Amino acid sequence: MKTNVLQLIHGFIQGGSETQMIQLTNLLVNSGNFNIHVACLDGKGALRPKIDAMNFAEVPEFNLTSFYDRNTITQLRRFAAHLRERNINIVHTHDFYSNIFGMMGARLAGIPVRIASKRETLGLRSDAQNKLELLTFRLANAIVVNAEAVKTYLLRAGVRKTKPALIYNGLDLSRFPLKCDSSETLRSLSATLPPSLNGNRPRFVTIVANMHHEVKNYPMFLRAAKRVHESSPGAVFLLIGEGRLSESLRRLSGELGIQNNALFLGHSNNVPDLLRISEVCILSSTAEGFSNSILEYMACGKPVVATNVGGAREAIVEGETGFLVPSDDDKSMGARILELLENPERAKQMGDAGRHIVETHFSCDAQLRKTEALYDHLLRDVRA
């Protein structure tokens, strides 16, 4: 009889944790080695159709308004009952809210294997939230981390050294073919390009990150973009992402005088094509776990300029697949972007090397293999 595994996520917005959870769920379903169930705290979001396409009989929601009201108790009891009724053996949670709710609910239900996930270090949560999550991790048998940097953070925070399990993010390379006709993407952008280009092909510099959290440090990118624009007026800066900070960032681009060259594209279902027409791709975060965006950039054969935070150095080889710059140092970032724009042959060599690294070290097969091995190991431990 196959083991029943439940994957729990907060919701289905377009984010790194959500993307990885959906991808892993699909891999597990297709492998057929476990019976996979899915639940969430909020069923809405742009990525919801990807879960629906897997044709689960149900994707129950356990809606929360706060961790500190009576509704939380009601939802925890509902969740525990759901786990018992479906004879769940493993609960695997994937983000801050599902970690806390899922670990408590799984413990209440007596689930033998409880796996949390941590994909960030600092900058996204308050001190109180960080303390609450660390307390919740005591209920977990293991904590999946996606970078050595995240593992180090947890160990320094006092997590038992046997709990973190390093499984790098996997990337479905079929979504990122290197050879593809990008003419339609260029045409769709043409109406928004600055008149100063006078028909010349723009030099696209692209960043993909949500605009919900200051930790992504879009202002650094915009300041670096201003520096690049002063030396390379044909550069066009594509900002892909949505969130509450978008309006303030638009205002900042105006204050910096680059509003015509900074294109705010919002949510996009066309990220691979946008990356393929780009010459340089950027990460400007002040803190990270392991960035999905970096892998996507490299998968598209693009050189990366990233802040040297979190797991960036675990993917980017300095001077070979891109450049690492200090956090919030827009001068260094601008200089590295210009260096790549002015040396397209070297930029292509870096992009090709990055694609090879993704193919070798960050495949979906490796992610699936290591996850299933973790499940089997923990089940053996609890049955011993």
Task: Describe, in plain words, how this protein is organized in 3D.
The protein is α/β, with parallel strands linked by helices and 384 residues long. The protein has 2 domains: 4-170 and 363-383, Rossmann fold (3-Layer(aba) Sandwich), CATH 3.40.50.2000; 173-361, 3-Layer(aba) Sandwich (Rossmann fold). It has 15 helices and 12 strands. Strands 2-1-3-4-5-6 form a 6-stranded parallel beta sheet, with helices on both faces. It has a 6-stranded parallel beta sheet with strand order 9-8-7-10-11-12, with helices on both faces. Helix 1 packs across helix 15 (364-383), helix 4 (96-109) packs parallel to helix 5 (127-137) and helix 11 crosses helix 14. The longest helix has 20 residues, at 364-383.
What composes the largest sheet? 6 strands, parallel
Helix content: 40-55%
Radius of gyration: 22 Å
What is the CATH homologous superfamily assignment of the largest domain? Glycogen Phosphorylase B
Which architecture of the largest domain would the CATH scheme give at its second level? 3-Layer(aba) Sandwich
Number of domains: 2
Distance between the termini: 18 Å
Q: Characterize the overall form.
A: elongated
How much strand? 15-25%
